[in-house]
Amino acid sequence: MTLPARVKLIDVGPRDGLQNEKQPVPTAIKLELIARLADAGLSAIEATAFVSPRWVPQMADAAEVLRAAPHRPGLAYTVLVPNLQGFEAARAAGAREVAVFAAASESFSRKNTNCSIAEALERFRPVVAAARDAGVAVKGYVSCVAGCPYEGEVRPDAVAGIARALFDMGCVEIDLGDTIGVGTPASIRRVVEAVAGHVPVDRLIGHYHDTYGMAVANIYASLEMGVAMFDCSVAGLGGCPYAPGASGNVATEDVVYLMQGLGIATGIDLPRLVATARWIGAQLGRPPQSALARAGVAVH
Ligand code: HMG
Ligand code: MG
What we know:
- By secondary structure, the chain is of the alpha/beta class.
- It has a single domain, classed as Aldolase class I (TIM Barrel, Alpha-Beta Barrel), CATH 3.20.20.
- Helices cover 42% and strands 15% of the residues.
- The protein has twelve helices and eight strands.
- α2 packs antiparallel against α11 (270-284).
- It is globular.
- The protein binds 3-hydroxy-3-methylglutaryl-coenzyme A and magnesium ion (MG).
- The site of magnesium ion has 6 residues, from loops.
């Protein structure tokens, strides 16, 4: 299959990357991270999450972050909302794109959002309706697409069922989350194939955590199947507070390097992105996750 000429990369670092940090990250650092990502050419950034501050204290400044995030032509922010309360708070802070998040595993759904999968889908219905009225785009995550930290194996047809339900409800894009990074190209291919039977492949986003170093391979396998949107996280930041052992998303700089090598456009300036990875690493007091950011960009 011909690979796409261009991909959309969404940096989820300010949300998925920082949500799991033990020490509070000052709002000013979050805002500078967002500005630096925009300066490096990111046109899509997942800025924050309007979730319960009791559940995820690190996202307690969601409204402040979204209100103060820089507005630039062509730059779009997504924010997570788990329910109507979150959606209303996000709207009041100016959100234009939101993401609801379901899971393909019952245990993860309960641990992450305190409800069953069916209850989560019911909670999203009024969110999608209110978003439609407000002209706000909604994307729908499915977590645990390649495995669950509590239940182990997750069947591709279970993932496809949730993806279909979200798409039928009105989610314009479906984001496939390998929350704990256990997928391999073979299992990710099975998931994408199952979901693509229900949702057009050009509406799919790959969201692969890099726990076992498989994320770049999983992106390549997805590209071969026509997926052209990927979540990633500068410096490989992150993990999920309700997915023990999960490491961060694939590092944005690793994905940009892959795309450059394949001749696929991203619109992102790799040296600036690497500088941002090093900068956020210094702010958090540890080196970036990616070897590329630690060693610098190779010159061929
Ligand atoms: P609950 O405790 O069942 O909620 O939590 P509730 O409706 O019973 O309300 C209890 C309290 O929470 C009330 O406050 C509400 O006002 C408040 P009180 O009266 O006790 O003071 N509340 C809220 N506050 C702020 N914003 C809200 C909100 N909703 C209720 N939106 C709930 C249910 C869903 C709220 C909670 O479980 C929650 O916030 N979960 C979010 C967990 C989370 O953010 N996880 C990480 C993101 S998911 C992820 O990382 C995976 C992903 O990256 C994809 C992948 O990798 O696969 C997306
Ligand atoms: Mg994630």
